[in-house]
Amino acid sequence: MKRIYKFLLKIVIWFVALSVIWVVIYKYIPVPYTPLMAVRYFEEDKGYTAKHQWKPISEISQNLQLAVICSEDQNFLTHNGFDVKSLKEAYLENQEGKRIRGGSTISQQTAKNVFLWQGRTWLRKGLEVWFTFLIETLWSKERILEVYLNSIEMGNGVFGAEAGAKYWFNVSSKNLSRNQASAIAAILPNPRKYKANPTSKFVNSRKNWIQRQMQNFGEFKLK
Fold first, then answer.
1. Whole-prediction pTM
2. Residue 155 pairs with which residues in a beta bridge?
């Protein structure tokens, strides 16, 4: 039994050390590829190529930064990676039979997109908690949002703000208007199903809601 315990302890120590190193590396260098990009490659037909171009956050429109915060995680600037209130609200809505929604924060989504696979297993969720804790501890909020905006899926085979802006509106992510940014943010719950341009009735309604939230949110500063 002692050998088994020692073996398991070594595995845990190596995992902790390697995951911390991994997160520290991505604190400074662009994320070149994500697990979801790999999954999509094997899901799609031969010849599939992911559209992705890294941009520093200084070259991503503040309209898009604010739009995703307002649509996905309005407490992003103040929470420590987990929004307990939103989780409770999502749980109650789902229990009441309303449209299923999650309570994941931008930090949790970033941890999942960059370091993990898709799925709802307890193992994956546990690892998501660990990596969320790491990036909240080792990265700034600005870095978390930068990585999120460069890795999130924004269409079928479209990843990141720059690719999304060019795909939907043929502009650079730096030049996205408030209307364009809110349209992209509106499709994030299911970017392979919805279109940012032209918008459906549902997406247009959600886009208008996001714009109202942006107006109410006002200016923001990242740390």
1. 0.89
2. 158
The predicted structure's pLDDT at residue 193: 93
CA distance 180 to 171: 10
CA atoms within 13 A on the CB side of 124: 12
For domain 2-217, the CATH superfamily is Biosynthetic peptidoglycan transglycosylase-like (1.10.3810.10)
Tell me the CA distances in angstroms from 212 to 17, 22, 193, 204, 205, one per residue in order: 44, 38, 24, 13, 11
Mean pLDDT of the chain: 89
Strands 153-155 and 158-159: antiparallel
Q: Long-range contact list for 16-19, CB < 8 A, 24+ apart?
A: 19/115, 19/130, 19/131, 19/134
Tokens coding 222 = 């990242």
Nearest to 220 by CA among 151, 140, 142: 142
What does the DSSP assignment read for 173-184?
A: GGG--HHHHHHH
Domains of the chain by residue range: 2-217
Residue 182 corresponds to which amino acid? S
CB–CB of 63/71 below 8 Å? no
Helix (H) or strand (E) segment spanning residue 18: helix 2-28
Q: Kindly report, residue by residue over 56-91, the tens digit of the pLDDT.
A: 999 999 999 999 999 999 999 999 888 877 666 655
Contact 72, 109 (CB under 8 A): yes
